[in-house]
Amino acid sequence: MTTGVPVLRRATAAIHGRPAAETLRDALDELDPAPLASDINDHDDGSGLWDVSGIFGEAPDEVALALLADAHGSDSFVVERIEDRDWVAQVRAELTPVEAGRFVVFGSHDRERIGPNRIGLEIEAAQAFGTGHHATTRGCLLALDTLLRRGFVARRVADIGGGTGVLAMAATSVWPAVAIAGDIDPVATVTARENVAANGVASRVSCVTAAGFRHPRLHAAAPFDLVFANILAGPLKRIAPQMAAAQETGGVAILSGILSRQAAGVVAVYRGWGYRVIERVPIDGWTTLVLGMHR
Ligand SMILES: C[S@@+](CC[C@H](N)C(=O)[O-])C[C@H]1O[C@@H](n2cnc3c(N)ncnc32)[C@H](O)[C@@H]1O
């Protein structure tokens, strides 16, 4: 039995074919707190069934998925405990370096393999999101790469939903900037601090536990030339007023965690707060938005 490893459970429901996959995906996105991972699969056998599953660390999330299953006509709902193992060690061993524009994100086990012509970001996969493998993180790094090619320079950066701190560190690796990475999850804050120290940028990147911009350090450091926010479409819409208050004309926001079909809705909200679209970066069904503030 491994100690210090979160107990994970997989909750699975077989749902009858009426709801579209998008409806189920939206419903999964709305679960609060969200599952650590989720999946939707068509049975593909003519039965018209969907398998909807989520991996959870906390029982209340399972209850939410059970309600979701019930709302969509499921007659089976199963929760199983996943065998304990050292997930962090397993994930670390399996991770390979990820390239995005001029950046390469890698674990310490790959340090020797990174060439000199890349900007390396060493990230240990712990219990935080942001190893560069997800399309949304890559989208943000590619968006940053594009801003650099356009000659954009940022001195003050905020990373809302910073996870491992990868985006804040990317910004401080290309500009003499200071950055604040805020995450609602205190475990992510600890992980980000470790990564920031390992990359030698602790004097320029501070990591705080905060929901959105609600932290004195974020208030004191505003206005920000650049804000990253790789959280989901719903929370992005909710923090739009805070984002607009934290930026001035000429400021840029890189927003991600947006399913491509949700992008128009996010853009509509941010237009109402003075933002215009500079660029869209679509990857694997996700869209990263680069928005410029023109108040
Ligand atoms: C998809 S991860 C992004 C991590 C990293 N920035 C990246 O791009 O890979 C989203 C992170 O946002 C955090 N989060 C979600 N909602 C938030 C909110 N309202 N305020 C701050 N952090 C939030 C989550 O805890 C999670 O660590």
From TrEMBL:
Entry keywords, A to Z: Cytoplasm, Methyltransferase, Ribonucleoprotein, Ribosomal protein, S-adenosyl-L-methionine, Transferase
Gene3D superfamilies in UniProt: Vaccinia Virus protein VP39
Enzymatic reactions: L-lysyl-[protein] + 3 S-adenosyl-L-methionine = N(6),N(6),N(6)-trimethyl-L-lysyl-[protein] + 3 S-adenosyl-L-homocysteine + 3 H(+)
Subcellular location as annotated: Cytoplasm
EC number: 2.1.1.-
One MF term in the entry's GO annotations: protein methyltransferase activity
Main location (coarse class): cytoplasm
Positions of S-adenosyl-L-methionine binding: 137, 161, 183, 230
GO biological process: methylation
Keyword S-adenosyl-L-methionine appears in the UniProt entry: yes
Top-rank taxon, per record: Bacteria
Entry GO terms, CC: cytoplasm; ribosome
Pfam family, one: PrmA
Class of this enzyme: transferase
InterPro entries for this protein: Ribosomal_L11_MeTrfase_PrmA, Ribosomal_PrmA_MeTrfase, SAM-dependent_MTases_sf
Family, as annotated: Belongs to the methyltransferase superfamily. PrmA family.
Function: Methylates ribosomal protein L11.
UniProt name for this protein: Ribosomal protein L11 methyltransferase
Organism: Amaricoccus macauensis
